[in-house]
Amino acid sequence: MYNLEDRTNSKIFSVHLGFIALCFFIGLAGFAYVLAILPGIAESTTVQPRTCITGGWKFGLIITHVLTFGLIPLAMRIFYQSLNNLGFPIRTIFASQLGLAFIMVAIASEIGWHVTQCWYYQNDFTMLNFMFYFFLISAFALWSDGLIEKTTKITNLINIIFAISLLVVSILYPLGYQENNDNFKVPIYIALTLVFSVLTYRGYKVLQNWKIILVPFFSVGVNLSFIFLLDKFGGNPYTNPQILFNALFHILHDLLGTEAGVAIFTWLIYMKGITPQNIKENYYNNQYVWPGLSLVVEDQVRVDRLLGNFPLQTVQVTDILPDQGGDFKSIITVILAISVVLALGYWLRFGSFLTSN
């Protein structure tokens, strides 16, 4: 855990910032490559007029997507305060804020993509479609990086893997456009699953609460289930329009998928870092446990003379310490549950490819 001096005197231009900049450069190189190749609007393969979604369904779709721009700022505020209360370093709090902001960039790209389609959902190969996936992967990567207390070789390796995955996706996406083959989007879903798995694991490490499984259940399992239904029953805007199914599954995909997952995660971090009981526990750690440990490790005070050197403000010291035992059963349950949800989502999303080919 970081003490007050570490949190207020953190260097801005550090080795860690340089490493993250390198990861950004790798990912953005692929982004620039796609930007130079792909069209902004999907090219029609038929002379028939395109079916548009209008009226109440269009209004519902707009509300569903715009809702994100209210949910994400609230999540940013809650994550900032909660992680600050939990004693996370400023740089990781900044990473979580940047990740959440990138979600709004992804959704803005998605809205532009849907507007060019008259709000009739089709997973075309376009620049706006790619921007949505690119910034969504980046958002989850940054968000997960904002949930680590200390940078290690493993966390740096994971960041490199995330950056390389963005580069690989950027190379394969234009090939899918040229071949008109949706299978080239498979690496996108693999990258999203990988990043979200890391986000879920790190979220559990912070929350120590099995309810974190609800986040991937909705954001991955429910989300991909409705994508599968869109692929199966959403129809084609030129030859087989299915306005009811297309609009309904599209709304549920966003509302009960991505947005529900973000809302649940935000609620859990609120309960962990902001509710009164947890604030008391955080005061105990910040004013008693961590300062005492730092004083002893740095040889500033002998162990038997610690009592008068704690920065106690709102905490009274007693001889009863909180239970710090590890709940290994919950950890194993979370890992197994995440595996089942991700496997189910993968089967629902890609089963159509296997059966159609």
Number of strands: 2
Which regions are unreliable across 5 or more consecutive residues at pLDDT < 50?
1-9, 352-357
**Beta fraction:** under 5%
SSE topology string: HHHHHHHHHEEHHH
What is the topological layout?
Blueprint: H1 4-8, H2 15-37, H3 55-66, H4 68-85, H5 90-116, H6 127-145, H7 153-179, H8 186-207, H9 214-233, E1 235-236, E2 240-241, H10 243-273, H11 276-297, H12 328-356
Antiparallel strand pairs: 1-2
Helix pairs in contact: 2-7, 3-10, 4-5, 4-10, 5-6, 6-7, 6-8, 7-8, 8-12, 9-10, 9-12
Features of this protein?
single chain, 357 residues, mainly alpha, two-stranded antiparallel ribbon, 12 helices, 2 strands, 1% strand, disordered N terminus, disordered C terminus
Describe the structure in your own words:
- Mean pLDDT is 77; it is low at 1-9 and 352-357.
- Helix 6 runs parallel beside helix 8 (186-207).
- It is globular and about 80 Å long.
- It is mainly alpha-helical.
- The protein has helices spanning 4-8, 15-37, 55-66, 68-85, 90-116, 127-145, 153-179, 186-207, 214-233, 243-273, 276-297, 328-356, and strands at 235-236, 240-241.
- Strand 1 and strand 2 (240-241) form a beta hairpin.
- The protein is 71% helix and 1% strand.
- A two-stranded antiparallel ribbon has the order 1-2.
Brief overview:
The chain is globular.
